């Protein structure tokens, strides 16, 4: 393993975004691409900035400065199960180091795991139950490790019943304990006992070079952290990934390229095979410049819908937002078409319900609930309306077709998959009736609260990009309807603002799902009223809206008692969606579409929305390892 000495090259590019020009300066070292056969090398964009501690590979230490998306958690680490946010190669659930799914006892106080046999670490040691037990016990006994808190909270004891069987005894019933070892993006990675047990201080150990449980080992890396190169193990077939086939690339290079403009240039020049994310404008430019480059969708909108749901989050502890009629009124003042055009230039996948329109969710939620949404009635206090418009996605497609032509799908099913099924009608009259029923009055062009104050608030939003445009457009639309709303760019929105409740409204997300599975436990447990903080206190993730309802608690508590694979989970998910529509504690808007791109100049077999949606195309997810087993050199 080599640490290459590199020279830093500076590049200054003009990046156009939100109608203004910004100068982006980047000093990024390029990897020695020419030292590796290009037809055997996959070059991937790592979207993260270089890690603060490039020599550190011990990703079990919290705050150690290691960067997982540099190939470490995709190519060399592993755990028991993976749940893909898309459809998967043979279903979204992968038995990875585990030979089969989890087995609970009747009251979910014990979980037993059967492990695969014949799996080897890259140094030739066999993986076995001792590694799993060591991983859990070490982190429980070592505060400061990433998984020490959840393991300590849940695990009473963990023991190896034999070399390939592990039994967990839990402190309380937990039907979702297995999720700690189930990777959607990240998970509890297994530590090599034979390595770490010899280390005096596991928190200080750099684990450099890392002993791999995956099919690749570290070849070399930039001491400044701009690139990492991985080489396929000769014994790749002794890893858990082998059940899905041999990963095709002999070498995989992860490159940190902070400038989205430079990512585009490098792909056009043949020096990148996969890009994590571009701006909407960057993606449109890429497909025009390169015949071999494309996105998740074959045409517009190109982007991959992530299993997160950008929304307008109300601080429901603010008295002005505690009446659902007010929240509904604000929803009906919005024009989702204009927000789509402003934020994504029309390339948004809209969602009127509190489920991101990604993975298998359109099949499980959005499609089956269309009739219910179309028939849904809302009492404004003066009339009863049906607020849902199932044609909104079709309308957005028509709006962008004059510019993007044949790149925009014409098939109605394809349009709904790409642009969303529908959204709420902009109905200013109904919004006014709801506000009046809630005690608000209008003086001239300004709505007044029941206590006679102007109805005005701020909305915290991201400092740039699609979320900033989303927040700015929503504020503009509300202001035009007589509610004075001021957008504020906030660089600490997730780190401080939302957890501390220092906001009135915000554009962010409090819903993240598995994507490939209808179970909602990924976020739903955190929404229980037990976890709602008092005003002024820090809110645990992820119920940033600080909303609570006895009906929601009842759904969550039944989820706790329901096995992960039970069909009942989808029924509970539908109940959750209908409750969220009735109460509107947040205003769902769209998925977080990521303009991931890949190039077929050197490799084919990438997942696609239309034919093979087997994996999330976003490159920093651990699930991207499955893509490597499906690739083939283009020349063949």
UniProtKB/TrEMBL annotation:
InterPro entries linked to this entry: Peptide/Ni-bd, SBP_5, SBP_5_dom
Signal peptide annotation: 1-24
Keywords: Signal
Pfam family of the protein (one): SBP_bac_5
CDD domains in UniProt: PBP2_TmCBP_oligosaccharides_like
Limits of the Solute-binding protein family domain: 94-527
Recorded superkingdom: Bacteria
Keyword tRNA-binding: no
Residue intervals passing through the bilayer: none
UniProt main location, coarse: periplasm
Cellular compartment(s): Periplasm
Family: Belongs to the bacterial solute-binding protein 5 family.
Stated name of the protein: ABC transporter substrate-binding protein
The species this protein was found in: Devosia honganensis
